Amino acid sequence: MIEVRNLYKSFEDKEVLHDINATFENGKTNLIIGQSGSGKTVLMKNIVGLLDPTKGEILYDGRDFVAMSKREKVMLRREMGMIFQNAALFDSLSVLENVMFPLDMFSDMNLRERQKRAMDCLDRVNLVGAEKKFPGELSGGMQKRVAIARAIALNPKYLFCDEPNSGLDPKTSLVIDDLLHGITQDFQTTTIINTHDMNSVMGIGENIIFIYKGTAAWTGNKDQIMTSTNQKLNDFIFASDLFKKVKEEVTGGGMDEK
Predict the structure, then answer these.
(1) For residues 172 and 141, is the Cβ–Cβ distance under 8 A?
(2) Which positions ≥6 away from 42 have C-beta within 8 Å?
(3) pTM summary value
(4) What are phi and psi of 63, to 5 degrees?
(5) For the stretch 26-65, what's the b/e string if a residue is b when 16 or more beta carbons lie within 10 angstroms of its beta carbon?
């Protein structure tokens, strides 16, 4: 579990995050959503340590990441897996070598053990048979699946995903969502997904924090979204006619609640 307590972040005289409080649960897909410029990317960067908060606490199972020494932070990062928006694979390495990369860097396994672990991860994302290919030979969806395999190679306790469905078609996005949800449940990871994808929100949003102008404006799950009376959330989620129609069907036409 990751807890964010009274988190503030400013850049010079501009406050970007204001008194954020949130709990990200293990074994659930935790989503951070919000408009571009709302502060959700800054929030995730603070959680993973790419930015230092101006004030506040970030607790990893009770351990305050903000107060840790540099060495302690390095050790904690070994418990993290990261999936970047553009997959961030190494073009000069094969699929197998990409997945083995964190194992080569941080594990004590011998070569055979590292190869077996990497193949197990590729099997998990249904890419056995592609291990000798290079990223340039793969579709966008396959690259994302390689990125997921690499992210779980070290059995992370905490999994962070930055717009994992960016640039993917709807069908492939569902595959990625299913993989992330399954991995989260099976391994009881604390998974945090930063997303704009409303299909992901409505499909796997088990714990959702909505960021609006740097504040945590709403928290809940995908079912509670359908009956939410938070107008800012409704304006964001139900901007499209499709989702607006779904909301109206659930609530009996009530889209004007305040």
Answers:
(1) yes
(2) 9, 16, 17, 51
(3) 0.85
(4) -95, 125
(5) bebbbbbbbbeebbbbbbbbbbbbebebeebebbbeeeeb
Q: Return the C-alpha torsion angle 72, 78, 80, 85, nearest 10.
A: 110
Rounded mean pLDDT, 7-29:
94
Q: What is the mean pLDDT of the chain?
A: 88
Query: Using CA atoms, how far apart are residues 191 and 184, in angstroms rounded to an integer?
Result: 6
Strands (DSSP E) contained in the chain are 2-11, 14-24, 29-33, 55-60, 63-64, 80-83, 158-162, 190-194, 207-212, 215-220
Q: Which two tokens stand for residue 253?
A: 């036409």
Residues in the chain: 258
State the pLDDT at residue 227. Answer: 84
Q: What is the DSSP letter of 180?
A: H
Tokens encoding 179 = 């993989």
CA separation for the pair 12, 57 (Å, rounded): 20
Structure tokens at 3: 């807890």
- Give the integer Cα–Cα distance in Å for 1 and 62: 8
Q: Has residue 159 got a pLDDT over 60?
A: yes
Residue 37 CB contacts under 8 Å (≥ 6 apart), including other chains = none
Residue 217: helix, strand or coil by DSSP? strand
- Per-residue model confidence as pLDDT tens digits over 71-86: 999 889 889 998 887 7
> Do 2 and 59 meet the contact criterion of CB atoms below 8 Å apart?
yes
Which pLDDT band holds residue 248 (cuts at 50, 70, 90)?
Answer: low
Q: What span, in angstroms and rounded, lies between the C-alpha atoms of 228 and 220?
A: 9
